[in-house]
Amino acid sequence: MYPNNTRTVGVHEYMYWYLVTAPVMVSHRGIALADNNLLRRDQGSQHSPVTSRISNLSSRGGGGMELPGLVFIGDRELLSPCEPCDVAKISSPPNENLQEQLRMLKACQKAYGGIGIAACQVGWRTRIFCMGIDVDDEAARARYPDAKPFPHQFWVNPSITPHMEQGTSWFWEGCLSVPGMRGWVERPNAVHMQGWNENGEPIEAELDGLPARVAQHEYDHLDGVLFPDRALAGTLLPVRAFEDDRQDKWPENWPTPGARKTKPGGFSEVK
Questions:
Q1: 218 noted as active-site residue
Q2: CA nearest 257: which of 189, 170, 190?
Q3: In this predicted model, what pLDDT tens digit does every residue of 186-205 receive, in sequence order?
Q4: Residue 115 · residue 172 · CB < 8 Å
Q5: Which of 246, 216, 173 lies closest to 9, judged by CA?
Q6: What is the reported pTM?
């Protein structure tokens, strides 16, 4: 599915980064880390799997909805495949609890400034993700200033087929579950998607550009893969490396030609 010449960073490498530096990086956000470096769980919660992982990062979405905290790199649950969703429960008859979880997932994406989010990133271990950028989504645009808006969409139990004949491109990927970092990732430019929407209806689509990129990133989450697994070796950088024109000071062709001129949210097809 992915280019053979893309070197990857192994799980042990980014786990080391998390165990050594993450407590320092995220402690100012008020996140409590347990002795085993997993996010603290609400042991007494009687809520659904989604709301049982409320952390100190929990927030409130539109309408006062309480939102679960994000699951971060270092949590073993991000490294294993998610379970398929029972599509029949979405709409026949409508499952209000499931619909509430879908609304919650979309609210989490917006509240945390994502351009996409997988259910497992908020502790809901099912094969669902949503993505999209609204014109007025200031939080998402702040993280990816060069990203163009595209319609919001849900994908339930998706399958994905890359169109390798349409080439590949590079992108400085980030992730809500890997805070403060970006990596230089090569992926196919276009994909064919099949699955179900939030109403339990079968859907398929041809995606290219940013929607294709985000879909592949979120689909990886469903298989327990994080973007550091896809990043070119040695290119996991702090977000500050992209601020205040710092990119202009990078070597011309580092880490590959075109990388220096590609801002977060932009693409490079230079090989």
A1: yes
A2: 170
A3: 999 999 999 999 999 999 99
A4: no
A5: 173
A6: 0.78
